Amino acid sequence: MPDAASVARGVDKPRRPQASPLFRLVSDHLHRLQTVYDERFARAYGPWRPVVAQVADKFLACGVLDHGFARIRCDACTHESLLAFSCKCRYFCPSGHAKRLTIWTQWLDTTLLAPVPHRQVVLTIPKRLRAYCLYRRRLLGEIARVAARTVTAAIRTLTGERDLAVGIVACLQTHGSRANWHPHLHLLVTDGGFRPDGTFVSWPAHDTARLTEAFRRAVLRLFVRLELFDEDQAASMLSWPHSGFHVHTAVWEGPFGSPRTIARSPPASHATAPAIPSRSNG
After folding, report:
1. Residue 278: pLDDT band with limits 50, 70, 90
2. 5 — phi, psi (to 5°)?
3. pLDDT band at 97, cuts 50/70/90?
4. Rounded distance between C-alpha atoms, residue 134 and residue 43, angstroms
5. Which residues does 54 contact at the CB level (< 8 Å), separation at least 6?
6. Looking at the chain, which runs of residues are DSSP E strands?
């Protein structure tokens, strides 16, 4: 039988990152990929970005004692262990991403989001525009700001409250289910907005087709302003019977900070809630 001290401590099982298939793949093929990338992949996936090599180098050092560690000692039992440093990178490193996502989600729930219902809004753009984003990554941030302004304007218009502060958290996703280049936006939006006195006004029933059209026109105006399109090209896209733009708003979640339910089609209302302190950014 195991001794009592071992049971109390548990068994420390450090990660073995070098044994993972992803580690071996990056370690063995990253340099070769970088040398042939411009010739074989740049046309389809955009130019090689320095951040790729930086993230890969951090990933190869993540969880490896040779690249730094903390020495942990229990004062009660004098047991010691070594904890390798983490790369703290998002997306690429499974360990670092999971940790950051957990911490970020907890921060959202406990610090930022107001205790009111929220709605997920997903916005997509047509294939013709995605290529521009592939070579001008900052354009993705511009489109995110257009999306936030469009949703805010829609809520203010439908409620008839021009001074409502709408809380929005925007998350950019650049790939589809097949790991293809498919930039689109996920917005976590307060299901309404706050008056200056803190009173919350719910988002009334709305027509997603009208919201989609408003988003389409706003994005095309952005492309004209940035001189990526001229007026005639934008007008031509407005005549398309199937625009390629899409907005989805059917996923609704109950107030944060309380037992919550997630629904695909929540009952629409135009209720006014009592004043509450808002933690969402307007």
Report:
1. very low
2. -65, -40
3. confident
4. 10
5. none
6. 69-73, 80-84, 118-124, 168-175, 181-190, 192-194, 199-202, 246-253, 262-263, 272-275
Query: Which of 4-8, 41-45, 189-193, 238-242 is predicted least confidently?
Result: 4-8
CA–chain centroid gap for 267, Å, is 26
Cα–Cα distance for residue pair 190/227, rounded to 1 Å: 33
- Candidates 145, 134, 155; CA nearest to 211 is 155
Tokens of 138: 């900052």
CB 133 within 8 A of CB 219: no
pTM, 2 dp = 0.79
* Angle in degrees, 0-180, between the axes of helices 127-135 and 138-159, rounded to the nearest 10: 130
What would the DSSP string read from start to end of 81-140?
A: EEEEPP---SSSSHHHHHHHHHHHHHHIIIIIS-SS-EEEEEEE--HHHHHHHHH-THHH
